[in-house]
Amino acid sequence: MQRTRVAEILSSEKIGTRFTVMGWVRTRRDSKGGFSFIELNDGSCLDGIQLIADQGLPNYKDEILKLTTGCSIKAVGELAKSPGKGQNVELQAQEIEVLGWVDPEVYPLQKKRHSFEFLRTIAHLRPRTNTFGAVARVRNAMSQAIHSFFQERGFIYIHTPIITGSDCEGAGEMFKVTTFDLDQVPKKGSNTDFGQDFFGGPANLTVSGQLEAEIYALAMGDVYTFGPTFRAEDSNTSRHLAEFWMVEPEMAFCDLEGNMALAEEFLKYIFAYVLDSCKGDMDFFNRFIDPSVIKTLEGLVSQDFEYLTYTEGIDTLLKSKQQFEFPVVWGSDLQSEHERYLCEKVFGRPIILVDYPKEIKSFYMKVNKDGKTVRAMDVLVPKIGEIIGGSQREDDYDTLFERIKEAGLNPDDYWWYLELRKFGSVPHSGFGLGFERLIQFVTGLSNIRDVIPFPRTPGNVSF
Ligand code: 4AD
């Protein structure tokens, strides 16, 4: 089935050329002059193409006049300049074939604007709306930008495993992977006998590809991984998913300062890429979702991020006299309200906070000379809060061994990770960017469930 995509036709504007298009009807309007206007969208771009269907078409009365929103059609016609408002060109149809009908009484997508809550209940149809089509195209462009950024800089793309035997964050928020019949789990005494399970031991879905990326960084220098990650945390918020995508670069011979510089350069590259390559979709978000998205992104591309320590951040919050729901105390994690206050009200730009208390950060982060803080960095952006978490990694065997024990983990489970510090250890750093949070930031969509095709959240895994 040969066809030309609407995006290609609209950008080429080859007047007088015969094209075949296929897609879904958005609207049909009938004119008194004996012809109909059909707005056809094929998902290749936000705009549809206008078809002019004349009553002279053999199926005009029996089929064309019955077309409703959602019907799929094939149309062959000649491209002409459009005399009407709203489009430069239109296709004067010489043939229209209906591929699939829709019963308008039961088709859930109508011309009116539907709520995002409602659209989440029809994840199989929502990509046909303007918003979800635009999100899918921007998500695609951002994925491309991520690979281009790292490939242009000589990073090697590593496919880290989805199923893993280790807990990267040491937080125990992992989904278990098993083939056991859950009604008859084999026991050894009172414990589960994982020896009889598929992998011969406990296995989980990964929370991060970092530890495996470190293995490759300590052989190949600069690497990155970009894939799905899973967290069984019961956080029902507009920023949390149980399944989300993470981008994780890992660099050998790199300290925290190099890590911060890369994170800033990386975010600016993605913003510039999207502004340049997704103009139609970004205009749509700016018009209908958040009237500040384009200006914000343009500003960020040319603005330096603010760098400060966690301790300075806490001091700034304490001095602000602002009332927060959660108290501000040195030693506890910053809440999203604190992060947003710093970004939005104090600095008015993204900030990178470094040197967090070691008690609230993961075991693998390099301990500072003060013995109290670690070389952690969080990148915080307005409206979202934390978008990137990273650190310089602990590269000293003895310190790491102690940190694993302090975190209540078993060093035997991390024997290979420890060995990397025994055999040719080097300073190295990396970070993890939550891909969906970045898409939220770029599109202005306030709920993370609307920037991933099939959101998985506590109590929700529809299909
Ligand atoms: O800060 P996190 O937990 O860092 C790590 O996993 C490190 N191992 C990364 C590394 O250094 N290679 O997570 C990184 C980012 C967060 O900043 C956030 O943007 C996103 O992942 N994230 C989530 N996004 C959506 N839903 C969730 N439940 C998320 N948890 C973290």
List the helices and strands and how they pair.
Layout: H1 6-12, E1 18-31, E2 35-41, E3 49-54, E4 72-81, E5 89-100, H2 116-120, H3 130-152, E6 156-157, E7 163-164, E8 187-188, E9 191-192, E10 204-205, H4 210-220, E11 222-230, E12 243-252, H5 256-277, H6 279-288, H7 293-302, E13 306-309, H8 310-320, H9 336-347, E14 351-357, E15 373-381, E16 385-392, H10 397-406, H11 415-419, E17 428-434, H12 435-443
Parallel strand pairs: 3-5, 6-11, 13-14
Antiparallel strand pairs: 1-2, 1-4, 2-3, 4-5, 7-10, 8-9, 11-12, 12-17, 14-15, 15-16, 16-17
Helix pairs in contact: 3-5, 3-6, 5-7
Bound molecules: 4-amino-1,4-dioxobutan-2-aminium adenosine-5'-monophosphate.
4-amino-1,4-dioxobutan-2-aminium adenosine-5'-monophosphate binds at residues 168-169, 208, 210, 231, 240-241, 244, 246, 248, 386-390, 430-432, 434, 436-437.
Notable features of this structure?
binds 4-amino-1,4-dioxobutan-2-aminium adenosine-5'-monophosphate, alpha+beta, 5-stranded mixed β-barrel, 2 domains, single chain, 8-stranded mixed beta sheet, BirA Bifunctional Protein, domain 2
Structural notes for this entry:
The chain is of the alpha+beta class and 463 residues long. It has two domains: 6-100, Beta Barrel (OB fold (Dihydrolipoamide Acetyltransferase, E2P)); 127-171 and 207-450, Bira Bifunctional Protein, Domain 2 (BirA Bifunctional Protein, domain 2). It is built from twelve helices and 17 strands. It has helices at residues 6-12, 116-120, 130-152, 210-220, 256-277, 279-288, 293-302, 310-320, 336-347, 397-406, 415-419, 435-443, and strands spanning 18-31, 35-41, 49-54, 72-81, 89-100, 156-157, 163-164, 187-188, 191-192, 204-205, 222-230, 243-252, 306-309, 351-357, 373-381, 385-392, 428-434. It has an eight-stranded mixed sheet with strand order 6-11-12-17-16-15-14-13. Strands 1-2-3-5-4 form a five-stranded mixed β-barrel. Strands 7-10 form a two-stranded antiparallel sheet. Helix 5 (256-277) crosses helix 7 (293-302). The longest helix is centred in the first third of the chain and has 23 residues, at 130-152. The protein is elongated and about 85 Å long. The mean pLDDT is 95. Bound molecules: 4-amino-1,4-dioxobutan-2-aminium adenosine-5'-monophosphate (4AD). 4-amino-1,4-dioxobutan-2-aminium adenosine-5'-monophosphate is lined by residues 168-169, 208, 210, 231, 240-241, 244, 246, 248, 386-390, 430-432, 434, 436-437. 4-amino-1,4-dioxobutan-2-aminium adenosine-5'-monophosphate (4AD) is lined by residues 168-169, 208, 210, 231, 240-241, 244, 246, 248, 386-390, 430-432, 434, 436-437.
